[in-house]
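Subject: for your reference before the review

Hello V.,

The reviewers asked for a structural picture of the protein, and I figured it would be easier to keep everything in one thread rather than splitting it across files. Below is the amino acid sequence we used in the manuscript, unchanged from the supplementary table.
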Amino acid sequence: MNLPIVNFQARRQLLQAKLPEGFVAIVRAGELCTRNSDCDFEFRPNSHFFYLTGYAEPGAYVLINKTQSILFNLPKDPEKEQWDGFRHGVQGAVENFAFDKAFPLEDMDEQITKLLDGCQSVWFDFSDDVLQQQIVNWQQSLAKKIRQGAQAPAQFNQLASLLGEMRLVKDAEEIDLMEKAAQISVKAHQLAMQAVKPGMKEYELEAELNYCFMKSGSRTPAYNNIVASGSSACTLHYIENNAEIHDGDLVLIDAGCELGFYASDITRTFPANGKFSEPQAALYNLVLKAQKEAIDAVVVGAKYTDFHDVAVRVLSQGLIELGLLQGELESVIEDKTYRDFYMHNTGHWIGMDVHDVGAYKIEAESRPLVPGMVVTVEPGLYVSKDNMQVDEKWRGIGIRIEDDVLVSESGPVILTHGLARDIEEIEALMQKH
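And here is what came back from the structure prediction:
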């Protein structure tokens, strides 16, 4: 499921309007990556490239100047397609993806060198080392022809920041696609809550997620699934997913599918045996309170950091009341002693990348939220099993609750709606399997 090709064409036209006269912008799709021996990982194009093109074959490049967009791609080759699959080829790129021109990759050096002759600035992603070296080579090739009248570009500009700002605010069709991805992920989390049993392996639960993703139309997770039971939930990016789930454990699942190259991102924490213990419930309800109040702060005009600040205040106050922290609220926040239990931010942009692009600050100040931005809201608490400063009953408990939230004029809109969050809802859902 992808957006209409006219959407990608419109993005290229918008980029043309934003860039100055005499520019050339170049973006690379990326190459296949070897998994082992002669086997490759499944290819996923660079998000900036796909955002501008809608084209998902490896090895391709797009060049955009003030008057045209040109794709360089693998040509049709029946023999290679017999082994590796269909290619659109040069003609198909023009006919099916609305490029003005297309050339086979073997002609790229010659054609791009011609197109760079006389241009004033080249815009590209500075983090792409491969493309950077190619641009240096093209520039040097032109520099050698100065006596023949060639003019090599002298300015190089960061394209990624501009594309990041374009991608940051989603249009209605992007939001619809993200909500579809979110709802597939909601269904997967529901099935996992109902499938869990003490004694099963974490990867068995992960299998339920992936099955639901694919059965519902998503080819792949948006990121490595986290299925963490017991104290492993205190490891923020735990992806081993190979431990046995024990009776009395909490299970933290952080997983979301990708649909049409747009991500979803959900975290839920629930008891393996279907019933929260008293200490688990106390910490869980604190995290849930922080999340609900943080979501309420995701409003037009608020600063990006506002909802994080809300979550920190709620969590810190709760930790003091439960006896895990000592001191006055303001000093706990100012001294950041809460970070012993809550060490990450409360959210991030989400879009084509799960940790999506776009600046978090404007002129060194936290940027205001505007309609069309989508953020995750994901407070958590993590009490290390080795923390001897707290009562034993708290040790080894890790909890995070995460949803995807759209900034809108009418207030925050939870795209991951419909998934149980309250303890009573979770325990009731787990009884229905």
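For the response letter, the relevant points are probably these. The longest strand covers residues 23-28. The longest helix spans residues 172-195.

Happy to draft the paragraph if you're swamped.

O.
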